[in-house]
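On clarity, I found the account of how folds are encoded harder to follow than it need be. An entry of this sort, consisting of the sequence and the corresponding backbone structure tokens, reads as follows:
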Amino acid sequence: MNTTRLALVRHGRTDWNRRGLLQGSTDVPLDEVGREQARGAARLLDLLDPTGWDTVVSSPLSRAYDTGRIVAAHLCIGMSGTIPDLAERTYGDAEGSTREDAEARWPGGNFPGLEPLGAVATRGVRALDVAAAMHPGCRIVVVSHGALIRAVLDRLSPEPAPRIVNGAVSELEWSGRWVVRSVNRTAPPDPDARAGRVSSAAR
């Protein structure tokens, strides 16, 4: 059986990330820092597999989709679409609030409309299965969201996953079952940015 390699990438930063607001299903765009984090993720993917990646799929939410477009352009590969199950966990009535304000309003974190974490993990793993079935034996970049990625990693690995940072890459392989190879890797500094130059991928 051919091994399918998958890089699970959290989208870049948004203004709501910067302000510490729960986003969930709310469609919030990347900010400029987020776009640079997407370029950083692409640089890291180059380092992780210099032989190249085959395709990018993403959540349908724009912060993930636009991260995917930036990564695909840098890697000179195509995007093969979106998978609805890759969307972020829904936080219901708490979306747009800080977690502290939401928990003060709804003690115990029982926000109206909150999606159960087990359901998030189930659909997240299902989305990875769909991506692997669509592109067997390929190297796939999958762009999603922090809560979903963490739930998936917790489901697939005996080790508890850390908080997933914006632009981080986690590596998985499929050869009959999912195996987690690395978690939450982040990009090295951009040498062009340090030198005051703009890289071709950023233009």
Remarks:
- Helices lie at 15-19, 32-48, 62-75, 99-105, 117-134, 146-156, 191-194.
- The longest helix spans residues 117-134.
- Confidence is low (pLDDT under 50) at residues 195-203.
- The chain is about 35% helix and 20% strand.
